Amino acid sequence: MTGSGLPLQGVRVVEMTHMVMGPTCGMILAQLGAEVIKVEPPSGDKTRTLGGMGTAFFPLFNRGKRSVVLDLARAEDRETMHRLLATADVFLENFRDGQLEKQGLAADEVRRRHPHLIIAGHKGFLSGPYEHRPALDEVVQMMSGLAAMTGTKDRPQRVGSSANDIMGGMFGAISILAALYQRRDGRTERADIRIGLFENCLFLVAQHMVQYEMTGVKPLSMPEREHAWPIYDIFETAGGQRIFIGVVTEGHWQSFCREFGLVELLDDPALGSTTDRILARGRIIPKVAEVVRRWDATELSAKLDALNICFSPINRPEDLFDDPHVLRPGGLVHNFNADGASFRAPALPIEWNGANFGDGLKVPALGADTAAIRAELDARPTSVGKHAGGRA
């Protein structure tokens, strides 16, 4: 989905961000149609040159943006930055408190000169005792208890993606959309937004916190947890492939046992309720594992699908490029790196009137739009337009 049908067409975002959380916010807004202008230092965003697990950071989270290089150590470039902010609806940043002041963009001055701006700062922590601290995804996973819930008590483990950074960027986008909606009647309400990486992770573990609050029982980590269902496990098939099967309703229990020759479990009066079966997992799971080992993974998957029972192969990320659902029209978008090389990425998990967002986006080369933006600012009147700064 591209062009005039995009919902945020006409919204301008000036972004000074790095790493993942702030760039994710800008990337989402860009895919929804906003013009996102990424302001970079002369050396460029540091993630442009990352390798290893950071290879995808810059292209993935900066697709569809424009790149402007400004050296904020120079007074004239600081003034250019203010002229650019005067044309914008949103200013997006993710620096530690005090860092922008060192670059000549003190928060009180930005607010005084641009009262119309929606300012969204992605930070390590919301206001409070820790607000001065830097944070990383892994740091907040350790602090919040998410790592303890993902691993074990003795071996906490972070989740296998930049989940908090990405979700923090999502909360930034949600907040900005709320601020834009607040202005739907033409009023210019002040919107100073702060998004916390730690608090984002706290939101993720809230279900465990509230469980403890309500029961007084400390929640067990995922590897140590008590199962809530009689069959909710990974099994090995005849060819050595593994499959996850979840039997979670009474109807599923009945159909699973009948279809796979486990009628003796249905006839057992000691297994009459879900609770009975959970308590008897020690003898149920070995029987199920024995049956599953007789089945080819493809045939078993087809059978489970026909029974409407939850199942999944145990995939790795590279396997998803062969998954028929991922490969459906619109499931993957084709984008282009700054060097022109194409790459595929999952579309935003949204369908809008049956269409997907983000196909054909380009990753900007460093400073690719500097000259064009400067020329636009030089040609723009200083006192007319949508904002006091003169956006038309």
Question: What does this entry look like structurally?
Answer:
With 392 residues, this protein is an alpha/beta fold. Helices cover 36% and strands 15% of the residues. The protein contains 16 helices and eleven strands. The chain has helices spanning 21-31, 57-61, 75-85, 99-102, 107-113, 137-144, 146-150, 163-182, 197-204, 206-215, 250-259, 263-266, 274-279, 281-292, 297-306, 370-379; strands at residues 12-16, 35-40, 66-69, 90-93, 118-123, 191-196, 231-236, 242-247, 310-313, 332-336, 342-346. The strands form three sheets. A six-stranded parallel beta sheet has the order 3-2-1-4-5-6, sandwiched between helices. Helix 1 links the parallel strand 1 and strand 2. It is elongated. Mean pLDDT is 93; it is low at 388-392.
Ranges where pLDDT stays below 50 over 5 or more residues in a row are: 388-392
Mean pLDDT: 93
Q: Helix/strand-derived class?
A: alpha/beta
Number of strands: 11
CA-atom Rg in angstroms: 26 Å
Q: Which bin fits the share of residues in helices?
A: 25-40%
How far apart are the first and last residues' alpha carbons, in Å? 25 Å
Strand percentage: 5-15%
What pattern of helices and strands is seen along the backbone? Answer: EHEHEHEHHEHHHEHHEEHHHHHEEEH
The biggest beta sheet is recorded as:
6 strands, parallel
Short description:
The chain has helices at residues 21-31, 57-61, 75-85, 99-102, 107-113, 137-144, 146-150, 163-182, 197-204, 206-215, 250-259, 263-266, 274-279, 281-292, 297-306, 370-379, and strands at residues 12-16, 35-40, 66-69, 90-93, 118-123, 191-196, 231-236, 242-247, 310-313, 332-336, 342-346. It is an alpha/beta fold and 392 residues long. It has a six-stranded parallel beta sheet with strand order 3-2-1-4-5-6, with helices on both faces.
